[in-house]
Amino acid sequence: MERTRSRSFLCKYQERWRTSRSLLCVGLDSDIRQLPACLAREANPIWEFNRRIIDATAEFACAFKPNLAFYLSDGLRGMEALRRTVDYIPEEIPVILDCKVGDIGSTMEQYAQSFFDRLRVDAITLNPLMGEDVLQPLLRREGSFAFALALTSNPSARDFFLEGGVAELAAGWIGRFPAQQLGAVIGATQTDDLRRMRGLLPGRIFLIPGIGAQGGDLEAVLSNAVDSAEEPNILINSSRGIIFADCGERFAEAAAMAAGELRDRIRQGLER
Prior knowledge:
By secondary structure, the chain is of the alpha/beta class. It has helices at residues 9-20, 45-57, 68-72, 75-88, 105-118, 136-139, 166-174, 191-200, 218-224, 240-243, 251-271, and strands at residues 24-28, 63-66, 96-101, 123-126, 145-151, 182-186, 206-208, 234-238.
């Protein structure tokens, strides 16, 4: 069944938080090289893996985030897996496509058509390096949403995101555009800047990767990035730590356990 995008990402996120009390984003970085051996003979191993992961973790998820690169790497079969994955995710759970695109306006228009109009995801990630051109095709689509890379969690981010003034520069650019259509990617490992970014961007949704395999501190994130207990305005992403919690035949059960535990840790941290 094709996804409809009948409501905006913002509406879905807010309603999902109210109904599930979850701020967990399950990252579907479904690397075909790491899939359980029991799926090797499936016609489309990534799709079968994702189907079982979604079934196991949906009750704990505020959002799902497939990473485009892991589907492109499996060619046409991988892209079919992505299409089926997006369509399979329950309509009430928002889908963020992690694609990190950023180009001139005419090229971004093609990306926007592909991702929002054809694939029908609810949000994407984008690279704002080329300026406002990157964002305009999205702003013209009512209900569409993007997370702009601001402070990423990888160690070599310092090659471009130099110390001193980075938070202010990123926040200044993001703050020029409507909060209902633009949020920020803030790495969990950027502890020193989390509180500063929240102060500069109140009311914006932060997508926060880096918890788990990349060593981010969950308590530091909850202490510094949350807007308020009533409206936290964050999504905490975990990919490998959930979907590859086990690579045996019981991989889905292990993913459910990992997702439930992290969802509960986030809840408990908010209540402190």
